[in-house]
Fold this sequence. Notes:
The chain is of the alpha+beta class. 18% of the residues lie in helices and 36% in strands. The longest helix has 14 residues, at 154-167. The chain has 2 domains: 2-117, no CATH class; 129-168, no CATH class. Bound molecules: zinc ion (ZN) (2 copies). One zinc ion binds at residues 67, 69-70, 72, 123-124, 128.
Amino acid sequence: MKLNVAEQLKLAGKAKHAELEAELGPFFYGGRTVAFASPVRMHVDYVYDGDCFQVSGRLETELASECALCGKAFAEPFGFSFSERFKKDTSEEDDAYEYRGEELDLGRMAEELIFLNLPLSSVCAEDCKGLCPVCGCNLNTAQCSCAGDGLINPFLTLGALRNVDKEV
Ligand SMILES: [Zn+2]
Ligand SMILES: [Zn+2]
């Protein structure tokens, strides 16, 4: 996901737009695997102000997610807006990304921003019924006779939430 910025470096203040697309492989991050169901697409506007590049835009893709309630694998729409800076020589306290030569490599920025924006937990549908806390069957596709017999333990649901927290 690279932008050639030779032209901008000679002409500060001239804004440009680019559409980028890349197939990203799965990442392992913070104890969880991040996999993609669609290519990562970025719309970026970038401009050189004489000192650094201001890069802003939007990233869109689909995550290969697993439902936190029922365990089903599904493609989860995922996107966010961003605004970042790229500098030639970055010091440690600088929060800008570094670029070399006449090229901005947006790959590392995209990865970091994806991690920062990941949903805490993914649910396949707003009305996902999850698994039966008693017998474990998937209540979206199966019907069991457990419901209504008073055996459902509310602490099971609480425990499931705690497990989600730990994985973040
Ligand atoms: Zn589900
Ligand atoms: Zn059941």
